[in-house]
Design goal:
seven-stranded mixed β-sheet, about 15% strand, 12 helices, three-stranded antiparallel β-sheet, single chain, about 35% helix, about 425 residues, alpha/beta, 12 strands
């Protein structure tokens, strides 16, 4: 009698990746990760990462070795680093933001959170007794950083559209007017991509005569598009002391990274480290030179005009998405500058397929460069299928979409940003 062996079922990813197993099927694990990501990509429209730029040349040429940009970007020691490319990235961004050439410093970070930490650490070293003001729509890293710094935070309300409530800011500043103020403005809030108006923030600080100030802009999402528009500026008239942007959002770099820029006159310079022959001026010390090369490549490939075109196409698609959703009976809106489209939270069946960002009754999709009209049409079709032909919900869906809060005023919230 012949016995036929039954092949063992394929291992799940967690079991296949278990380093206690012998042998480990490395190829199977990598194949699983790539297949999983490729399968999810067409319906991943809720989180900000551009998908239109091809970074494979840099990864192929540089990805086989360590590129360590240890120390300050201006250091010249060592060989396997990309500090020259990092300096070029910093100069390009600072020029795009019209930052004074004689009062700028920055570096490539691990992302927006490190950029915020670096900037707020520099501000607090100069203003150790300052209260740090941030809105309820600010990024989750801000209260975490305030706790890390041992500082005192003051929470400011945000409107339903995500923009800071300047009257409530005035209440907080008045209560703490004896202390210097560090204010975190956001250029692109997490859920609605709202932009805080730095002109109005400065007006509040002026009205209460605070004894010292620092204005930091967390511009992880919208900073580069707004800078390319000329609507976000860090010139001498702006009164902005620092800014943080992400590199893996608008530039779609395949590793988390970002850039922080701080006015050189507002920071303490780093201490020399003898054995590395570098200045210890950054948060992490050793830094990813590959990220700097990827950012440089993204900028060099398209230049300012190419990236302006990417901005306009993303906004065009976002406007299209609002029109399609609204016409389908699913009310949606966006800020005039935004890639982000805000809508009532879809039913669970839609969210099981489409990766959206959701906060209670509100969700959003983000029309980052590379997202296509076909993806928007497919998403709207799936939403439409949840509503019965007669206008009522399909079985299993408890409600139709409700109206959601819209921007408080028709004009762009970016008006005046960077100009007190």
């Amino acid at each position: 009698m012949t016995h036929t062996s039954i092949p063992a079922p394929p291992l799940g990813l967690a079991d296949a990746a278990d380093l206690g197993r012998t042998p480990v099927d490395i190829t199977a694990v990598l194949d699983h990760l790539v297949t999983q990501a490729d399968t999810a990509a067409p319906t991943s429209i809720g989180f900000p990462g551009a998908v239109d730029l091809d970074h494979r040349e840099v990864m192929a040429r540089l990805g086989h070795r360590l590129w360590n940009n240890i120390g300050d970007p201006t250091d010249t020691g060592g060989t396997a680093h990309t500090r020259i490319l990092e300096q070029a990235v910093i100069a390009w961004l600072a020029d795009t933001l019209t930052m004074p050439a004689d009062d700028r410093w920055g570096y490539v970070t691990t992302g927006g959170t490190e950029g915020n930490l670096s900037a707020l650490h520099a501000a607090r070293r100069r203003l150790p007794n300052a209260r740090i003001y941030y809105s309820t729509a600010a990024h989750y890293s801000i209260p975490k950083i305030i706790e890390m710094l041992g500082a005192r935070g003051v929470v400011v309300n945000a409107g339903v559209d995500g923009e800071m409530d300047y009257d409530h800011l005035a209440v907080g500043v008045r209560r703490h007017r004896r202390w210097p103020a560090i204010v975190v403005a956001t250029a692109g809030t997490t859920m609605t991509e709202a932009v805080d108006d730095t002109t109005r923030i400065h007006a509040v600080l002026d009205a209460h005569d605070v004894p010292g100030r620092h204005l930091h802009v967390d511009a992880a999402l919208s900073g580069i598009p707004l800078a390319l528009d000329g609507r976000l500026r860090l010139d001498d008239d702006s009164g902005i002391g620092s800014i943080a942007v992400s590199g893996h959002k608008f530039f779609g770099v395949p590793t988390p990274c970002g850039v922080v820029l701080i006015r050189d006159s507002l920071r303490r310079h780093g201490n020399p480290v003898a054995y590395t022959a570098t200045l210890d001026s950054t948060v992490t010390g050793s830094r990813c030179g590959l990220a700097a090369a990827l950012l440089w490549h993204a900028i060099a490939t398209h230049g300012r005009e190419g990236h302006r075109w990417r901005v306009s196409e993303a906004r065009r698609l976002a406007a299209y998405a609002v029109d399609r959703l609204t016409a389908a009976g699913w009310p949606a809106w966006r800020h005039p500058h935004a890639f982000t489209v805000v809508l009532p939270t879809p039913p669970a069946s839609v969210r099981a397929k489409w990766l959206l960002a959701t906060d209670a009754d509100v969700s959003h999709l983000i029309c980052m460069p590379g997202i296509t009209q076909g993806q928007i049409d497919a998403f709207v079709a799936d939403l439409t299928d949840t509503i019965a032909p007669g206008g009522g919900p399909d079985p299993g869906h408890s409600h139709l979409p409700r109206s959601i809060p819209r921007p408080r005023r028709a004009s762009s919230p970016t008006a005046g940003i960077g100009t007190p």
